[in-house]
Design goal:
Helix content is about 45%, strand content about 25%. With about 290 residues, the protein is α/β, with parallel strands linked by helices. The two termini are about 50 Å apart.
Length: about 290
């Protein structure tokens, strides 16, 4: 059954005749007659009892008309909703963001996005970069904020590049240095993000390249708590410079980390060759608008 033939039949009933229906749908009377005949042939039952110039509904015609009105209304609603999705008046964005850096990098974007597309529902997931990559691979989210390098299964757009700084107790022997290497810190206990955070892996990999295994005394997802542990003299922590600058503490010194491979590169990633909704594309376009093309 085609919506075209169903529409013709419904309009014949609504308008009270074939010629009136033809004018309503901008077709010829012959086209309307053929459409109704096609529908009757498909159902194997007469839908209209033609008496002279009048057409009365048969029992089957009443059933088809009743359901046809609902089907056509549902189709119109469907098309209207799809139009709204195309125009980004509704829809959903499944976005994964890491706790580290999101308040600086993504909160302003989120505000602009909500202003531009108030009808889009943003389903926000917050995890460390490593766990977000798993969710992205599984198709649970459309886009994720991740640290580079990342999986070859993803495409990405770089958001920012930042060096790391070592957060040292004020009385540490390297606290007044302009820069420092991880090998200088091999005897200092490490306070790291939990292992679900990509920054955890970055620091451990760089330590091994420097020839030692880090002595990890604490792991946390809370930046302020980690800084508090450093201020209490328990060890060294590491943060991207842009974040550390906003978390200054009189008991803690910030020293630039100069080891290769420790740059903090945040990107928005998506599955390569995956379908991206209009809502997801709009977020990517906003990222490119604010942070430039790669």
């Amino acid at each position: 059954m085609e919506f075209r033939t169903l529409r013709a039949f419904v309009e014949v009933v609504r308008q009270g005749g074939f010629s009136q229906a033809a004018r309503t749908v901008f077709a010829t009377q012959s086209t309307i007659s053929k459409a109704v005949k096609q529908l009757e042939d498909e159902f194997g039952l007469p839908l209209l009892d033609r008496i002279g110039h009048r057409s009365l509904l048969t029992a089957a015609g009443r059933v088809v008309y009743r359901h046809g009105v609902k089907l056509l209304a549902g189709r119109d609603d469907l098309l209207a909703e799809l139009d709204e999705i195309r125009e980004l008046k509704q829809g959903a964005l499944r976005l994964g963001l890491p706790p580290v850096g999101s308040s600086i990098l993504f909160a302003p974007l989120f505000a602009v996005y909500r202003q531009r597309y108030p009808g889009i529902e943003v389903r926000l997931v917050e995890h460390g970069s490593a766990q977000l990559q798993e969710s992205l691979s599984a198709g649970e989210i459309d886009l994720a904020g991740v640290l580079l390098p990342t999986s070859p299964d993803f495409d990405w757009h770089t958001v920012t590049r930042e060096p790391l700084v070592a957060l040292l107790p004020a009385d540490h022997r390297f606290a007044d240095s302009r820069s420092i290497s991880l090998s200088d810190l091999k005897d200092t206990p490490f306070i790291l993000f939990e292992d679900g955070f990509a920054l955890h892996r970055v620091i451990l990999d760089a330590s091994r390249r420097a020839g030692f295994e880090a002595n990890i005394i604490a792991q946390s997802s809370q930046i302020d708590f980690m800084i508090g542990l450093v201020g209490a003299g328990l060890g060294v922590a590491f943060l991207p410079r842009m974040i550390a600058i906003q978390r200054r503490n009189s008991s803690v010194r910030q020293v630039l980390l100069d080891d290769a491979g420790t740059e903090w590169i945040m990107a928005i990633a998506w599955r390569r060759d995956a379908y991206l909704s209009g809502a997801a594309k709009a977020w990517l376009n906003l990222v490119r608008e604010v942070h430039g093309e790669n």
